[in-house]
Amino acid sequence: MIALRSRRILTPKGWVDGAVSIEDGRIIAIGAPSEGATVEDLGDLVLMAGLVDAHVHVNEPGRTEWEGFVTATQAAAVGGITTIVDMPLNCIPVTTTADALRTKLAALEGELHVDAAFWGGVVPDNVDDLEELVQAGVVGAKCFLCHSGIDDFPASTPENLRPSMATLRAAGVPLLVHAELESDLHPPGDPRDYATFLASRPASWEDDAIALVIELVRETGCPAHIVHLSSASALPSLAAARAEGLPITVETCPHYLCLSAAQVPVGDTSYKCCPPIREEANRDALWQGLRDGIIDQVVSDHSPCVPGLKLPERGDFLEAWGGIASLQLGLSAIWTEASARGFSIADLSRWMSQHPAKLASLKHKGTLTVGADADLVAWDPDGEFIVDADALLHRHKVTPYRDHTLRGVVHATWLRGEKVASHGKPLGTATGRPVLRS
Predict the structure, then answer these.
(1) Beta pairing, strands 51-56 & 376-386
(2) Are residues 272 and 345 in the same domain?
(3) How high does pLDDT run on average in the chain?
């Protein structure tokens, strides 16, 4: 039995000056250390529930040279994340059948440094596979309303989504939606100029797609989750849908909250993602969406690729692969901006631990309460550091946060009571587990 003592323990009921006692991987008491416990004193470090990142592209099996479960979960651990939820692409095979999920589970054996749950996928031809896929353990399923970037995960249409949503509703899991409806836009301009790319992927694509999702939720009753919201102009329709009682939740990402279009250097394709990073006014409005509770959570959408696909020599935003690799930096990036805007550590924990865990039905994750898994992070909210990309643990070191000064330094992470990371280094063997919906 161990006990972690801190003068700043964040629980759902508020702050506690005391200790978290842990036995057999679970929290057994909060307050005075339990009798016989070995006590580790964390002083004034904040001790709170480990983060749950419900949007991570690991890409194993099949594209492990992009990332892989070893590097992804090591990066997660040193960033204070204790559970990731893996996306159904860009692995091979894509996770659209129960057999594909079993292939993924076999590939990750012995590789997890934090726990991992899994999203399945919805594509036009797998409606009949979804019930078995959920029974095999996925916690929900994701679709694209536009081209996903790979041909084996094609875009969905209302025609295949209606029966798919009926199946997911009956199974009690959400549909996750990449909400962009494409039109044929070819704006003039230099492809090395970020403004050219931004004009090629307007906010209206998101707004129109979200309007379609709202109608499908109203029609089917299936819970839907909007992934990586970038367009703040969609917030009024989302707020109205929520007020109507429709089961719709929303996430956004650190890059939409911490970066803006005006700061993207010419040709620096590490900033490219889809949907794109937008203007400063849009960023401010997304923060207001968090304040108003329209946006529920903040997740990484960690999406690495081999550096060559970012076309660094050409700097062509239109042709480079999209995606931001930032798994390990989420807590610090968000706290840097949130603290400057008057938000609290409790807000951060709600966005990055509690609500992602709830979305994925991870009942013992994302909360520091008696009976929960002892998945914890100790961090200094006043500490600062300069991002050294070479020190990041995800496989490739391409990041728009290179050389940024961030606030909030992770000191240690515990997974079910075992310390798995300390001061930027993973510890011990891979003790993470797959978390399958039961």
Answers:
(1) unpaired
(2) yes
(3) 97
The Cα–Cα gap between 390 and 392 comes to: 6
Q: Is the pLDDT of residue 431 over 90?
A: yes
The answer to whether residues 36 and 110 belong to one domain is no
For the whole model, what pTM was predicted?
0.97
> Is residue 428 pLDDT above 90, yes or no?
no
Distance CA 198, CA 279 (A): 9
Q: How far is CA 58 from CA 129, 188, 204, 333, 361, in A?
A: 23, 35, 29, 21, 20
Sorted by sequence, the CB contacts under 8 Å of residue 248 that are 6+ apart come out as 213, 214, 217, 223, 224, 225, 226, 238, 241, 242
Q: Give the pLDDT of residue 423.
A: 96
pLDDT exceeds cutoff 90 at 304: no
N residues, the chain: 438
Instruction: Please calculate the CA angle 90-71-130 and round it to the nearest 5 degrees.
Output: 35
| 135 has a pLDDT exceeding 80 | yes
Kindly tell me the burial class for residue 184, based on how many C-beta atoms sit within 10 Å of its own C-beta (0-12, 13-18, 19 or more): exposed
Q: Are residues 87 and 195 in the same domain?
A: yes
Identity (one letter) of the amino acid at 99?
D
- Do residues 13 and 69 both lie within one domain? no
- Report how many domains make up the chain: 2
